[in-house]
Amino acid sequence: FYYQRPPTLRLQPGPSERHVSRHDDAMYGHQVGEVNLWLPLTSFADTRTTLWVESGPGADDFHPLAADLGRCGVFHGTLCRHYVPPNESSFTRASLDFRIGVDGCFDPTWVLR
């Protein structure tokens, strides 16, 4: 069992037109043996902004990841595209994300490109 450390802190101040474009993590050199975990640190009720993920590689059927305070969303970010729309609220959206790998699926000698 492997895990990313430290986790990545994401801050998205509002109101803003800035967003995270649709992408998959393979575009940034991540390997297929990773699984993404996403933990919101702010309430969706405050920001009305969340992570959107497609249900499978290339499905192009984006849906909001159903995770709020105290819940962690899980998805295969290396193959499934995801994005975050602009935060139009007056609150800052905050989240943590990290990746895990399981023996047999994850290559610990992989070098991030």
Number of distinct helices: 1
Structural class: mainly beta
- Give the oligomeric state of the chains in this entry, treating copies of one chain as homo and distinct chains as hetero: single chain
Poorly predicted regions are none
The count of β-strands is: 9
What is the makeup of the main sheet?
A: 5 strands, antiparallel
Fraction in beta strands:
25-35%
Give a structural overview.
By secondary structure, the chain is mainly beta. The protein has one helix and nine strands; from the N terminus they run E-E-E-E-H-E-E-E-E-E. It has one helix spanning 44-47; strands at residues 2-3, 8-12, 20-23, 34-40, 52-53, 63-64, 73-75, 82-84, 93-101. Strands 1, 2, 4, 7 and 9 form a five-stranded antiparallel sheet that branches. The protein starts with a strand and ends in a 12-residue tail after the last strand. The model has no long low-confidence stretch (mean pLDDT 94).
